[in-house]
């Protein structure tokens, strides 16, 4: 049984989401107020986290940034903030998907099911693909753990950032368009934007830049490929 955590300061919304997901046989835990300083243990052990952005004592964006240093659990932001920039900010700061309020409970359940199925497919694919470790020059992938290292240093990647890097590293000569990358790391009904792929590439490059490494090569007019340095 998949375990889901919902973080929202509106108790009525919490109850509605909890009931809808429990009817689908998910084990649901809710948090109405986040304890500060943030206790990592409260957010570990879940298969998916639904996170409101406008919380009472900490923004969901800030909470996600703190969690992303320690956990790779998929996080879906839920917010009434609905501009393109709002969505991109959420995705660039560790979110894996974004649901705009108000939403229907059917939409919520569909999003959750799609994210969990994709996560299960990814785990299965990693188990079947090649070996549990992939060495590419200075960069090492640990496929079962979904972690990337440079030497002994782990790079704190979000789930989407890891998915993009892992996809590019499968075929070092292939150029992937933004659309191909998008449909490999999102489900088809995702609210995310094609532009978010460029944002993820920017974030990945920032995280590797302190080591003097750029794992992604931009191919003008085409897309992105693994930078075989």
UniProtKB/TrEMBL annotation:
Residues in the signal sequence: none
Residues in the DNA-binding region annotation: 131-228
Membrane-spanning ranges: none
Entry-linked Pfam families: Response_reg, Trans_reg_C
Domain OmpR/PhoB-type: 131-228
GO cellular component, one term: cytosol
Organism listed in the record: Ligilactobacillus murinus DSM 20452 = NBRC 14221
Top-rank taxon: Bacteria
Response regulatory domain residues: 3-116
Record-listed 4-aspartylphosphate modification sites: 52
Keyword vocabulary terms for this entry: DNA-binding, Phosphoprotein, Transcription, Transcription regulation, Two-component regulatory system
SMART domains: REC, Trans_reg_C
GO biological process: regulation of DNA-templated transcription
An annotated Gene Ontology molecular function: phosphorelay response regulator activity
Protein name stated in the entry: Response regulator
